[in-house]
Amino acid sequence: MNQPVQTRLNTLLREGFDPLHLETINESGMHSVPPGSETHFKVVLVTEAFSGLRAVQRHQRVYQVVDELLKGPIHALALHTFSPDEWQANQAVPASPDCMGGSKHDRR
What we know:
This protein has one domain (5-90): BolA-like (GMP Synthetase, Chain A, domain 3). It contains four helices and three strands, in the order αββααβα. It has helices at residues 5-17, 55-65, 67-70, 84-89, and strands spanning 21-26, 40-46, 76-82. Strands 1-2-3 form a three-stranded mixed β-sheet. The chain has 108 residues and is of the alpha+beta class.
């Protein structure tokens, strides 16, 4: 049985990081893809595993955990990674920008 991509993404992140907080948001509808696509995601991930790591190290760990999805169905992954202390101090996650690629790009 094929799982939806978002479900598989959640499973891999939960198994890989034991997060205190996890959000996976399918942002595919903001891009030039067919309706119902699961290709563009925003992830908010809070875990003790990120304490003491720089952003690039955190992202590398996430990429390792979700590698199978990055080779296939996921085209873009926006990562917002926090240690528990960082999350408690400021739970702000930036809004994603509008897509400027594909047919939505202004080609003057």
